[in-house]
Each structure stands twice: as C-alpha cells, then as structure tokens.
Design a protein that fits this description.
CATH architecture of chain A: Orthogonal Bundle
Structural class of chain A: alpha+beta
Number of helices of chain A: 7
Radius of gyration of chain A: 17 Å
Largest interface: A-B, 37 and 38 residues
Mean pLDDT of chain A: 88
CATH topology of chain A: Arc Repressor Mutant, subunit A
Order of helices and strands of chain A: HHHHHEEEEHEH
CATH superfamily of chain A: Winged helix-like DNA-binding domain superfamily/Winged helix DNA-binding domain
Oligomer: homodimer
Strand content of chain A: 15-25%
Strand order of the largest sheet of chain A: 4-3-5
Low-confidence stretches of chain A: 1-11
Shape of chain A: globular
Largest sheet of chain A: 3 strands, mixed
Distance between the termini of chain A: 31 Å
Chain lengths: ~160, ~160
Amino acid sequence: MHDHAATHDHGCGGAQAAIARAERLCRERDLQFTRLRREVLAAVAGQTRPMGAYDIAEALSAPGRRVAAVSVYRALDFLTEHGLVHRIASRNAFVSCGHSHTDGAGLVFLICRNCGTIDETTAPEVEDQLGRTLAKAGFKPISRILEVEGECGACLSRPAEA
Amino acid sequence: MHDHAATHDHGCGGAQAAIARAERLCRERDLQFTRLRREVLAAVAGQTRPMGAYDIAEALSAPGRRVAAVSVYRALDFLTEHGLVHRIASRNAFVSCGHSHTDGAGLVFLICRNCGTIDETTAPEVEDQLGRTLAKAGFKPISRILEVEGECGACLSRPAEA
DNA sequence: GCCCGAGTGTTACGATGTATCATCACTTCC
DNA sequence: GGAAGTGATGATACATCGTAACACTCGGGC
C-alpha cells in the first residue's frame, strides 16, 4: 500500500487535479464538461468533508447569480455517473473522488466522527472476501456501499484539539 | 451456509418471532415495549422490503386513528437503538432485524434490485479483513454500514417473473 | 391529592430530492 | 439561411425525509 498520499489529495491542491482528471475523462468519452459541472466538482473537491447539495448550491451562488439545488443535483448526477464524485449515503452528501479507478467498485469510505474528514481507499482483500460471501449466498452484486465511521489517524494522534 | 432460512424469517411468520424477541429483550433490559413500538416493529417485520417512516405511519393509520410520522420516527429510534430494526442508508428506509446479535456489528445487507427484498447476513471473514485494512490505515472504527445492491438468488432462478 | 418522568399527539418547520416546463446553445439536415 | 432535434440549464413547484417545540396522558412515588 501507500498510495495513501494519493487518497488524500483532495483539499485545494486536489481540486486542480480532480478537474484535470475530469477534463481528460470527458474528452476521452466525448462528454460535456460544462461550466456548472466544473464548478460543482471544484466546490466538492475543495473540501475534505462531504458537502450537501444545498451547501454546494449556496457556495456557487453569488449576489448576481443564484444556482438552484436542482441544477446542482443534475451536475452531481453526471459527476457520480462517471465516477468523478461519490455519494456518502450515511450523510446525504458528496465527496470528490480521489482515485482514477474505472469503476466505483471496491471503495471504502472512512468518515472521521471527530473532524468530519472523509478518506477514500480501496481494499481488494475485503472485496475478495465479500465476493466469496456473496457467491455463497447466491447473490449477484451490482454495486455496493461500504462506509466506516470512526476516528481518523490524525485525530487519534492529537487527542484534544478542538 | 444455509441458515439461509433463518436470515429470511421476516415475512409474516417472522413478525411474530421478531416481536417475541423484542418482548424478551425489553423485559431483560427493563424497557417499555409499548403499543406503538410493537406496531411499528410489526409493520416493518411484516415486509421483506424496507419501509420508509412515512409508509409505516400510513400503514398504522386508520379511519379513526392517525399516526404521525414523527411518532414513527421516535419508535424507530428506540427500535434501532436496541438493534431490533436496522436503517438502510441507501434507501432511507428500515427493515426488521433477523438476528439476535448483540450489536449491529458485522452486518451485511443484500438488496435485490429486482424484487426489492432485503436479506441480512453476517460475514465474519469480511469483518476480519476490513478490521485489518482499517488498522493499517490507522483508522479506529466505531460503526459501519455495508449494503450490497444486486440480484438475489430467488430472482436469478426465475429470470422473467414480473 | 400532587409531582414527575416517559411516551405520545399535534403543529410547524427544516432539509433533501424530484417533476415539469421553458429557455438557451449547438448540431444536423433540408 | 432556416427548421428541427438534442443536451444542458433556469425556474417554480412539489414530494419526501427528518426534527424541534410544546401540550397531553398515563403510570408510579410522595
């Protein structure tokens, strides 16, 4: 392991990378990476915590411009469909994807109860075991969500920082 | 395998069992298993698919009696807190617990995309692997959700039943 | 009787997500 | 050039999910 740094590259610098990746992907697949989609992705990628759709709408709105939640949802649909953003079901919120994986398969989200940061990793061994378990149960998986809530390493290192 | 029947014992007969288990548990812990809580549990346990809180409220309401969603939420809070009912995060809905586990740990929910049935199992091997993965990442887990969407064995056996 | 606590009913509200229709930009085909 | 089609967006309304606040009831203890 230890593409750990890679899994952490949200957070400002990561936004640039995420957008660059999105542009490349959209060029490859002949998709439209429009202004709104870019802005929604930028907003999400600029955070290490998940953002709600309404948070995003507010963040993109300005005195002269109002972005409605419905527009954000549409952009998020596009972005999640192509794996650029992930939905955190336990929070009704979204994070930008830190990987360049082809599919949403095998992802694990680590949600820190203390600082709210979301870390995204893959766990092939867990996937393998899960696949075997599902096969034994006669269940054919299509998609899955695996979200773990707890305390992240950073928060465990410095116990009492508010 | 093939405690499969056991994992399936929602579904009408299972409602009786679920309520019996709940009564026992509440007696042991000196909790109040009130009429509303019993009815909410019965409603959820009588289904193999997850029910939304508003669905439950409607199911319990009758010409002479209106059960508000907020009451259902309170009952569900109680039931989930004591492991009698589980929340399906990906559906914003609830299913009755088919096990008598002490804790919500290690559960896997199998959600059939075709028939909507939810099957609940445990997967110790997956748990073990996940625990190791989290330890390596320096993350201390407190709770987790693992929900798999796909096609259940029953639906795979009879491909074209509407 | 009185108080107190847990559960419930009721109303209102906030937060999340979707349906519908109009508009705009761009392409294609005539 | 102009008509028609397609995909994205704007705007309004609506549906669903969840919670806050307060009043009421019912039991037990004093």
